[in-house]
Design brief:
Elements (H helix, E strand, L loop, with lengths): L5 H10 L1 H7 L6 H8 L4 E6 L5 H15 L4 E5 L3 H17 L6 E5 L2 E4 L4 E5 L3 H4 L7 E4 L7 H7 L9 E6 L6 H8 L5 E5 L9 H10 L2 H7 L14 H7 L18 H6 L1
Parallel strand pairs: 1-7, 1-8, 2-5, 2-6, 6-7
Antiparallel strand pairs: 3-4, 4-5
Helix pairs in contact: 1-2, 2-4, 3-4, 4-5
């Protein structure tokens, strides 16, 4: 059977981002391939640690820049260091692929391709990200830790371009825009991947972590559960129960009652 030509291979990758991820040395899991092939304009990815969510979005960023000439791709995280780490995954994929398109400019935080596309890693502060518009792909990494004001400042960048927004994270408590978006009714495509669904995390390692970590941390980091934060004095469930009308108040046995008839009422 004749081998496919370089042009045919490139065309296939242009039509299927999952093929690009494979060519970058990262054969995708089924859920990763589904994320890459999705046409949803808004995606939420709640994934365990080390599931491959950042690598997936790095390949999506590279694919967008390669096959949409003039595309603007922004990588946003809670801090510049984290954005730079995600950008490094883009760089690694680009190099493993064999430098698939010439670079016009390159730095530790930016790729500019000769086809006019740009991939830029942004700092995680609201005042410094303003000024970008016409964004084709906005990737928000560690989204559960991205402050609401940063997220709200980033959304208008998609206003005129009808660009795609992908937010990925491990849960970080029942708070913030990411949690509200996950549990809300807005039109997001939602993807959840627990450690049990990741073939690269062994059951033996998970059991070791289960025995070592506090239950809420394990449930969050590996089970993708939005748990009460470790700093909470009362759980959300306890607070909700305080306002349930069908729960009788408790009166201590043997307490003094100004009206003796009250004793039988609370006994």
């Amino acid at each position: 059977m004749a081998q496919p030509t370089a042009l045919a291979t490139d065309l296939a990758m242009g039509l299927d981002p999952a093929r690009l991820m494979t060519a970058c040395g990262l054969p995708p899991d089924p859920w990763q391939a589904a994320v890459l092939r999705s046409q949803a304009p808004r995606q939420l990815m709640v994934c365990c640690r080390q599931s491959g969510k950042s690598s997936t979005c790095a390949c999506l960023a590279l694919h967008t820049a390669l096959y949409q000439p003039g595309a603007l791709v922004l990588l946003l995280s809670p801090s510049l260091r984290q954005s730079q780490e995600l950008f490094k995954k883009v760089q690694d994929a680009y190099r493993v692929r064999g430098n698939p398109a010439p670079l016009q400019a390159e730095s530790a935080l930016r790729y500019e391709l000769t086809n006019g596309s740009r991939i830029i890693a942004l700092p995680g502060t609201e005042p410094t990200i303003r000024g970008y518009s016409g964004v084709d792909l906005l990737v928000i990494d560690e989204a559960a830790r991205v402050l609401d004001e940063l997220y709200l400042a980033a959304r208008p960048m998609l206003a005129t371009s009808q660009g795609r927004l992908v937010a990925l994270s491990t849960p970080f408590g029942k708070r913030g825009w990411f949690y509200e978006a996950w549990r809300g009714e807005a039109d997001w495509e939602r993807v959840q991947v627990t450690a049990q669904q990741c073939p690269r995390i062994s059951p033996a390692f998970l059991e070791e972590e289960r025995q070592t970590m506090p239950v809420p941390w394990f449930a969050s980091e590996y089970g993708c559960e939005f748990t009460d934060t470790v700093y909470s004095v009362f759980s959300d469930d306890a607070i909700d129960r305080m306002f349930q009308a069908d729960i009788d108040p408790w009166y201590p046995q043997g307490a003094f009652y100004a009206d003796p008839s009250e004793r039988s009422r609370w006994s």
